[in-house]
């Protein structure tokens, strides 16, 4: 008897296979939690503006919590139907003003910065963190990882001095157990300086992890830690 091959079964199988790939696909692999030294944002050619609520503390501030892929790329602007709504985070605003201060010009309260971060990055992790949990997770990470304290305990102070990049990395690795990514920029006189510190967090937002990939930080082997 001739065996007839039913191609429609093959099509169905392929369809199911694709569906399972889509369903199993991760939104993102991990988060970069990025903190920024305000002195290094402000002493650049572009300069900065303090928020309407006043000069931020001389401490690292949050730049963002960014969903990322292991290959170094990242998703962005994932859901325009879930745009920033400050009424959802009213209980967090005073902490945000202190720990997630805007430095962009013209001066504003910070909502422009926060809404940019939510719309561009936060919407890409909405399957794990809703708006309130997204901002709260970042604030809690900041409270847990006191970078200024970590660096100062290692004798690395924001005193316009120059420090080796490896000493900065080592101080943080000794304190948190993982190697951070360090990003530098240049001040108005062209000095290479400590700008942002990237720490990796698993895709639930709960645990620090070793970074699957580190950003190209553009740092010299010795960098300035400017005052603020
Ligand atoms: P992102 O788009 O999240 O990758 O961040 C880059 C953008 O954030 C740039 O437009 C920066 O100018 C802006 N930015 C970085 N730090 C701050 C800050 N402290 N306040 C306001 N805007 C900032």
UniProtKB/TrEMBL annotation:
SUPFAM superfamilies recorded: Ribonuclease Rh-like
GO molecular function: endonuclease activity; hydrolase activity; lyase activity
Signal peptide: 1-24
Annotated InterPro entries: Ribonuclease_T2_eukaryotic, RNase_T2-like, RNase_T2-like_sf, RNase_T2_His_AS_1, RNase_T2_His_AS_2
Keywords of this entry: Disulfide bond, Endonuclease, Hydrolase, Lyase, Nuclease, Signal
Record-linked PANTHER family: RIBONUCLEASE 1, RIBONUCLEASE T2
Family according to the record: Belongs to the RNase T2 family.
Protein name from the UniProt record: Uncharacterized protein
């Amino acid at each position: 008897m001739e065996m007839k091959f039913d191609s429609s079964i093959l099509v169905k199988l392929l369809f199911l296979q694709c569906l399972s790939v889509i369903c199993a696909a991760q939104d993102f692999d991990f988060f970069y939690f990025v903190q920024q030294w305000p002195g290094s944002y402000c002493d650049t050619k572009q300069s900065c503006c303090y928020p309407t609520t006043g000069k931020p503390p001389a401490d690292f501030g949050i730049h963002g919590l960014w969903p990322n892929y292991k290959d170094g790329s990242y998703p962005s602007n994932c859901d325009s139907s879930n745009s920033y709504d400050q009424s959802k985070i009213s209980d967090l605003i005073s902490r945000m003003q202190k720990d997630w201060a805007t430095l962009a010009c013209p001066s504003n309260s910070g909502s422009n910065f926060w809404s940019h971060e939510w719309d561009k990055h936060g919407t890409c992790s909405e399957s794990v963190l809703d708006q309130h949990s997204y901002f709260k997770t970042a604030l809690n990470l900041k409270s847990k990882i006191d970078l200024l304290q970590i660096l100062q305990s290692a004798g690395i102070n924001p005193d316009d001095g120059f420090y080796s990049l490896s000493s900065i990395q080592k101080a943080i690795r000794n304190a948190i157990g993982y190697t951070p990514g360090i990003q530098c920029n240049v001040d108005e006189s062209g000095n290479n300086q400590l700008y942002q510190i990237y720490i990796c967090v698993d895709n639930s937002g709960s645990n620090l992890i070793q970074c699957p990939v580190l950003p190209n930080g553009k740092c010299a082997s010795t960098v300035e830690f400017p005052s603020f």
